[in-house]
Specification:
459 residues; 21 strands; 46% strand; 9-stranded antiparallel sheet
């Protein structure tokens, strides 16, 4: 069969060598078993193969010699049903993939032998094998060729209502089907493969909202490639604020963990996840009264601040209510170490008093550098994060009334952060980070492994 050039096909591809020089935010490897299940679902379980087989136009079969030396003509030959289809694949390292489909076909038509016409039923198994090879990757498009398609017919069973079937008719039908079916079935597999590739490609090029703050655009950044054990792909995620700028991230090469007996492994790189956290964890500045209704340590914090007033301070407020403003500064940084995930971020804490005339006295402007423990999990196809406070470092930025020593405030401000800031942080992270639905493989029951600079998700 003449090679058929297709564009935009992803699933059946493999280059002569792995992607060279392509750096990405995430990578994945898919096992042959997973690919076989994905393709079986897409081609067989959806009825796509059966639909295209039903559309085949089978030619008439004619012979000069038949039963009783009369000519034999079979007309109106059509597919009654296809059943018991199976699909298998084999990865061809550095080449691509071999796809093998076996299906049982029941054909029927009208058989004219001399002056006798009756219904003929033909039943056979056919195996269709095709090799899918990748040729290049350009402007986000994978170019592949589908060639080396051939068909092998199994035993052919033929029935006539009269039961008068000669060996010559059987041989004529078998010879005709052997010659004509490859020219019908290989285009069917080409068409089916093209449709499936478009469907699967859509899972690799998708824009997903990240809360209400922006979006991430997942896309393929290099040609997929095959080894003997997996199909591997490099993707990236463009993280963009809603109506705003792109949040950049560094990319670097890294080795995928082994699949072992798994279906899929996805690795997300530390810098890429940090760019997503910059979007996900963005909290607008907020102000609240320093009162026991706001947080449990308010009275102790107020008393400790009052104790820090310099002696003889005439501008220090005596009994005015205090207010606290919390503002995030900079972007959070995710640190991944073996079996440990930490987020480092900074917030400004402003303790102030508003006078009756509307002027403001800033008692304290503090920077708090936080180290947060991160508990990671997978739910509803998203990476979920839950934060708890590990460490706080406080730095005095300024004070309108001359306070210079803040060490006694740390326990009270730590309590404030735990009771006020962390719940807000966990609330904005509640929807998690959406992950690409690679080839429709569910992440339900996925296992997470935190490595140095990498998060591995295995199914």
């Amino acid at each position: 069969m003449k090679p058929l050039k297709l564009f935009g096909m992803v699933v059946f591809c493999g280059l002569l060598s792995p992607t060279q020089g392509v750096l990405s935010g995430l990578s994945c490897a898919i096992s042959p078993r997973a690919m076989q299940q994905v393709l079986s679902d897409a081609i067989i379980q959806t009825g796509l193969l059966e639909k295209h087989l039903q559309g085949m136009a089978l030619p008439n079969i004619m012979s000069d010699r038949g039963l009783l030396s009369s000519s034999t003509i079979i007309t109106g030959l059509h597919l009654e049903r296809s059943w018991l289809p199976t699909l298998s694949i084999a990865l061809l390292p550095g080449i691509g993939m071999q796809l093998v489909v076996t299906v049982h076909l029941d054909l029927s038509g009208n058989c004219l032998m001399g002056i006798l016409s009756e219904v003929i039923a033909i039943s056979l198994d056919v195996t269709i094998t095709s090799n899918i090879k990748s040729t290049s990757f350009e402007l986000g498009t994978v170019h592949v060729t589908v060639d080396d398609c051939f068909c092998i017919l199994g035993a052919v069973k033929i029935k006539l209502i009269s039961g008068l079937l000669s060996l010559s008719v059987h041989d004529m039908v078998f010879s005709h089907l052997t010659a004509t079916l490859p020219g019908l079935l290989c285009p069917v597999m080409d068409a089916v493969s093209e449709i499936v590739n478009v469907q699967l490609l859509s899972t690799l090029n998708v824009v997903m909202p990240v809360g209400l703050k922006g979006m991430v655009h997942y896309h393929l950044v290099g040609p997929p490639f095959t080894s003997g054990s997996s199909l591997m792909m490099d993707l990236d995620g463009t993280v963009q604020q809603m109506g705003g700028s792109i949040i950049p991230h560094d990319s670097y090469a890294s080795t995928l963990p082994p699949l072992l007996d798994g279906l899929l492994v996805i690795i997300l790189r530390q810098s890429f996840l940090s760019s997503l956290l910059a979007l996900l964890l963005h909290i607008q500045p907020y102000t609240f009264p320093c009162s026991s209704e706001a947080f449990s340590g308010a009275n102790q914090l107020r008393d400790s601040i009052t104790d820090l007033y310099p002696t003889g301070c005439t501008s220090c407020p005596a009994a005015s209510p205090l207010s606290i403003r919390v503002e995030c500064v900079g972007n959070p940084i995710l640190l991944l170490e073996p079996n440990k995930a930490t987020v480092e971020l900074s917030v400004l804490l402003q303790v102030f008093v508003k006078r009756p005339d509307g002027s403001v006295i800033i008692l304290l402007l503090l920077k708090a550098d936080l180290s947060l423990n991160v508990r990671l999990s997978i739910s509803r196809g998203s990476l979920m994060l839950a934060f708890s406070l590990s460490r706080v470092s406080l730095f005095l930025e300024s004070s309108d009334i001359g306070i210079s020593e803040i060490s006694n405030l740390k326990p009270h401000l730590t309590k404030l952060l735990v009771e006020i800031y962390l719940p807000r942080l966990n609330a904005v992270a509640a929807d998690g980070i959406p992950l690409p639905d690679v080839f429709g493989i569910t992440l339900m029951g996925a296992e997470l492994q935190i490595l140095l600079g990498l998060l591995a998700i295995s199914v």
